[in-house]
């Protein structure tokens, strides 16, 4: 079952290049630089007139939604709100026929996400779900579904489901850009090309497994952790923190790096490790200043940075290098580093990563 791997989670981390290849297969053309989502053909006319998007999900799928906001707003210039399903369903969301409602769910059975879908649909929204389970409740109630092809995810901590959700949102962003005419052919080709390289980018991170295990040995006894990132990598910080808490039971918080000085900086001392996502981006210099602020207060810094960045070696205590990609696909490499780090902290502590305490794979009750 585990095909030679020690845990399902480990197997599923390693399956990500394959899972992403399967998820994007047949959905783009390099000849015309177009994304094809034939599953949305029947509702294309409704999608052409949407003015706003609401993404709703729980947990890791919500983090994917937060990344989706960056991608869709950047590519298609449509305003996107992202909500946690249990919040959305009990407030009074403003919905009409010009809203595209996107529930994201690995299982397709999450009770709060399903309830939020029903609410939005009853108010006239077009519903396009992103889901990993064919025929699940959420897909049955949607107007259209884009399936992630992660394959069954057994480990309770979501890994390949998350990265395939990211790949799907990326495709959806380009598709919506085509409907709205917001990206020209060259731009689309550039982004599609970057996405095609993602399986290879992730494979290169898989070779860092042992290196990240060595790092985890140094940190597994920590009781607290901060994860900081900016922009598209801020949700990756949230996801890294969630992975660490759910399987290693180490308390971790994710924050946008720029928020640090508005509170969390008070926590920094020599016992507070900070995991920075500091890959090359238009905002890298700002993140570097945040690293300096942590170091000035004796915090311990682990930085995930882009290959070739030597300067950061002088600032951070530990650096994990990932391949250079365009900013929009850096989320894949940085996510996998964070997955490995949590996985190793937990297994080194002797914990059951596939079935962490108190957690269920599918949350079908409120
Ligand atoms: C975390 C995790 C959960 C799920 C959440 C939503 O690793 O797996 O946070 O992401 O329960 O589940 P789905 O995506 O099935 O709706």
Automatic annotation (TrEMBL):
> Any one Gene Ontology biological process term?
amino sugar biosynthetic process
Residues at the active site: 361 (for fru-6p isomerization activity)
GO MF annotations in UniProt: carbohydrate derivative binding; glutamine-fructose-6-phosphate transaminase (isomerizing) activity
Which residues constitute the signal peptide according to the record? Answer: none
Q: The organism sits in which domain of life? A: Bacteria
Gene Ontology CC annotations of this record = cytosol
Instruction: Provide the protein's localization.
Output: Cytoplasm
Identify which top EC class this enzyme belongs to: transferase
Known catalytic reactions: D-fructose 6-phosphate + L-glutamine = D-glucosamine 6-phosphate + L-glutamate
Question: Where mainly found?
Answer: cytoplasm
Role noted for this protein: Catalyzes the first step in hexosamine metabolism, converting fructose-6P into glucosamine-6P using glutamine as a nitrogen source.
Q: What is this protein called?
A: Glutamine--fructose-6-phosphate aminotransferase [isomerizing]
Q: Which organism is it from?
A: Calditerrivibrio nitroreducens (strain DSM 19672 / NBRC 101217 / Yu37-1)
Question: Which residues of the complete protein does this chain represent?
Answer: 242 to 607 of 607
């Amino acid at each position: 079952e585990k095909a030679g791997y020690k845990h399902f989670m480990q197997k599923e981390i390693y399956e990500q290049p394959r899972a992403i290849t399967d998820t994007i297969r047949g959905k783009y053309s390099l000849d015309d630089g177009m994304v094809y989502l034939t599953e949305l053909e029947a509702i294309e006319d409704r999608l052409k007139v949407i003015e706003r998007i609401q993404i709703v999900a729980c947990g890791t799928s919500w983090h994917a939604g937060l990344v989706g906001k960056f991608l869709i707003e950047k590519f298609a210039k449509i305003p996107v709100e992202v909500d946690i399903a249990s919040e959305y369903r009990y407030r009074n969301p403003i919905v009409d026929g010009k809203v595209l409602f996107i529930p994201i769910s690995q299982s397709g059975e999450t009770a709060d996400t399903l309830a939020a879908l029903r609410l939005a649909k009853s108010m006239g929204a077009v519903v396009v779900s992103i889901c990993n389970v064919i025929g699940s409740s959420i897909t049955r109630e949607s107007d259209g579904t884009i399936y992630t092809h992660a394959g069954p995810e057994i480990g309770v901590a979501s890994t390949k489901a998350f990265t395939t959700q990211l790949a799907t949102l990326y495709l959806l962003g380009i598709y919506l850009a085509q409907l709205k005419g917001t990206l020209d052919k060259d731009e689309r080709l550039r982004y599609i090309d970057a996405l095609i390289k993602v399986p290879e980018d992730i494979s290169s991170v898989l070779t860092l497994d042992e290196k990240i295990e060595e790092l985890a040995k140094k940190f597994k006894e920590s009781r607290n952790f901060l994860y900081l990132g900016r922009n598209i990598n801020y949700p990756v910080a949230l996801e890294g923190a969630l992975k660490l808490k759910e399987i290693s039971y180490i308390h971790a918080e994710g924050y946008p790096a720029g928020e640090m000085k508005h509170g969390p900086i008070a926590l920094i001392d020599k016992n507070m490790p900070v995991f920075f996502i500091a890959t090359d981006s238009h905002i890298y210099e700002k993140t570097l200043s945040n690293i300096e602020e942590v170091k000035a207060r004796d915090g311990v810094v682990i930085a995930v940075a882009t290959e070739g960045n030597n300067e950061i070696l002088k600032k951070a205590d530990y650096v994990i290098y990932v391949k250079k990609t365009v900013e929009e696909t850096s989320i894949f490499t940085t996510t996998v580093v964070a997955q490995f780090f949590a996985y190793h902290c937990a297994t080194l502590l002797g914990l059951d990563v596939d079935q962490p305490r108190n957690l269920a794979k599918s949350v079908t009750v409120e």
